[in-house]
TrEMBL record, chain A:
Signal peptide: none
Organism this protein belongs to: Marinifilum breve
Matching PANTHER family: LACTATE UTILIZATION PROTEIN C
Protein name as catalogued: LUD domain-containing protein
InterPro entries listed in its UniProt record: FTHF_cligase-like_sf (IPR024185), LUD_dom (IPR003741), NagB/RpiA_transferase-like (IPR037171)
Domain spans labelled LUD: 29-154
Pfam families per record: LUD_dom (PF02589)
TrEMBL record, chain B:
PROSITE patterns in the record: 4FE4S_FER_1 (PS00198), 4FE4S_FER_2 (PS51379)
Keywords, ordered alphabetically: 4Fe-4S, Electron transport, Iron, Iron-sulfur, Metal-binding, Repeat, Transport
The keyword Transferase is assigned to this record: no
Protein name: FeS-binding protein
Domain spans labelled 4Fe-4S ferredoxin-type: 297-325, 347-376
Pfam families in the record: CCG (PF02754), Fer4_8 (PF13183), LUD_dom (PF02589)
Signal peptide start and end residues: none
Molecular function GO terms recorded: 4 iron, 4 sulfur cluster binding; metal ion binding; oxidoreductase activity
Keyword Iron-sulfur attributed: yes
Gene3D superfamilies associated with the record: Alpha-helical ferredoxin, NagB/RpiA/CoA transferase-like
Amino acid sequence: MNDLERFIEKSELVGSENLVLSNDEFSMILKKERFDYVDVPSFNLKKDIRAGEEGIGTALVEVDYGIAETGTVVVDSCEENKRLATCLAEKLLVVMPLSKLVSTLNHVADFLEERTTDMGGYVAFITGASRTADIERVLTVGVHGPKEMTVYILNDL
Amino acid sequence: MKIHDQINEKLKDEVLYKNLKNFATAYKASKENAYKGLDFESLRTRVHDLKDRDLNKVMQQFNQFRENVEKHGCKVFQAKTGEDACKYIADVMKKHNAKYMVKSKSMTSEEILLNHHLEKEGLQPIETDLGEWILQLANEHPSHMVMPAIHKTRQQVAKIFADYTGEEVDPDDIKAMVEIARRFLRDSYFKSGVGMTGANVAVASTGTIGLVTNEGNARLSSTVPPVHIVLVGYEKLCDDFNQALDIVRVLPKSATGQTITSYTTWIKGRTPSYKNEEGIKETHYVFLDNGRLAFFEHPKFKEALKCVRCGSCANICPAYEMVGGHVYGDRYIGSIGLILTALYQGDEAAKDILKMCIGCRACSFNCPSGIDLQTLISDLKLVVGKKYGINPVKKKVFKNLVAKPDRMKSVLSMGANFQFPLTKTCKTNDEKIIGTVPMLPKEMDFRKFPALASKTFSKRFYKDGYDQFTSDRKVFFYPGCAVEYFYPEMGLAMVKLLQKSGIQVDIPKKAACCGIPAIASGDPDNAKTMIFNTLDNLQGPKDYEALLVLCPTCGGAIKHEFLDFTKEDPNRYKKASMLGDMVTPIGKFLEENNIKFKVKGNMKVTYHTPCHDSRSLDYSAESFLSNLIGKQFVPLTDSNVCCGFGGTYSLDFARISNGILDKKIENIQASQAELLVTDCPGCVMQINGGLMHKKVPVKVLHLTEFIENYLEIV
């Protein structure tokens, strides 16, 4: 199994939707869909909003890395509005260029080190929607944060 | 409330019983799945080793962490006691006029009773982890480290929510209850002046904490309020992100059987914060000692500081599964809870709960940090047993009977001669049992007791001339008390089998107890006498191919406990060490010597793996047996889960023992086997006794008796 297959397998296991797209296909989605918060620097896309108590509908962010071992995306969310948006959106959508997919957790150790060297650092590993099993161990999503998650995997290789 | 009253109350709680039983089953499957394709042993060794350090090293890590955060204006407070930590946190809240503080889950805050302290000061902590919130509203404390409200039903939660919100709550709709939590807790992040989290890891190289969560409440607690307090024990420190990630790799897998949690969040203090006047968050780190630091220098107990708080020692503990974490533990729960209660709160607080460990060693083999939890509990049992005394009847029996081999022999042969008015034959299997044990307390009446054998194993061995067989190939056999006094047939079956294969069997000059009953009861002095008796009666290792045992608990004692108890006696230590290396369970010996059998008859056979076979002698006869009998073998669900015997544990905690046995019997019945094979006389006593009590017609045989009756040497 290659890293992409492994990533998708693990990501699906936690209920996320995974779509492998070309740049064109992704552009079509951008045209069609509306997002409340957007931060996708590779496409020069930024729509800033400060999510408050009432939350927001959708947030679209580009990730720094994907980790195949666990189906995880890595998002540097030190910027406060990005943090609030990814915490408070009903639906979280992320853009993961395939070139950013690494095999194991330890492959992002250097990245974590670099992003936490200076004052203030906030890097999130996100693997699926916000979930709980605290009542009778019944898995329920959306207890505090996003209820759904979609990963747009951009085939940029 | 006395420990036995607490236990009895929990044993009556059907909700708890069902929730924990279902969880135990589901957990095992999901954990296995999560670790699939990975080498658990090497992963846990890595975590164990990276957490293996002395006080000097931890303080180096701390100083590095502190320097990294203080240079950016974060505040670091070293709390000597829980009270110091509570006071500091309260002061930060007061300084900011914060009435509310949102908290994500923190066992360290449970350790120091933080909420209680803050509430006394008129401050209001708000738990945001769903399970913790439920318990805060219900005014209870967690019964599991990772799933705090596992003892509650949806109906109970609905009632708690209805009382709190004044709304109608559908008692069956968990999704709607989760929605209520989302709605009611959302506002708390925004109205709180301070957010508090714990830390699963604290990375020294950059001064970063890592938080492992599923709900996302720790992200909100550390993001929204203008002030962030991190409460963390020194033991959570590690050097760098590679070490931290090694911990993150095992933690969720062992905790809940998840590959990884929804969120793992890495936070370096002083992030942007619009709610803070300066636009930058104020960050405080409260490093808690509360008794930890001293133990980094302790040769044994430093192990306990390697815990990553996954809770897996509770998840696989058969006694925890019966009584839950409100009894099995204190502020911390499960095996590590018993230990940390003794270390942090003192041995008086732990003296009763320590006894609830049945000694099955499952926790030691499941710990993702490689902590030998059961051995630490056993050590602590000896400490509190010596300091606070043990059951006086037991003490007398150990001292005046079990530790005196000659007296034990004469008293038990007298018993064997005069027991006849009490004995009868069990109808289901024709075995000689004690019909009614006089004055037996009701709770102990859950299994039939075997009658004492009319002649001991040693007596028959010499009388029937088995000592006359000589050969160049020799093994030494240590029968242990159960084979000697109750089940001589098990031993004789083995002797005949080996002699047929041309192997001479020698036995000790005098039968003596291996000391485990005294060790498990916390009686080190008598244990030592018993161990010395046994050791002095075992022939030295020269000339023998193996030291055979039919009781893996005795075998484990010779291999492990004998070394501990002979440390100050070099001659005995050397002998114990050489003998320990030779200890071999009979199945393993037969496999290694390639002794071939053919099967007589046709019946469905299953196998129970004794705890101390798999976990003290690193062996299970399951594959040997299934290879031998092929299609006649049916696997037993949870074969390697304890049968509930634990020696005198089954009398001291009869109801727990009974509950564990009931589950074993359920699995045996589900296997539809006609015969159960195992290779520990203690397990035979427990399982056979339970089956006879319930009149379940499944035959139980020790491996040696099974071979004698159902196989032939080719």
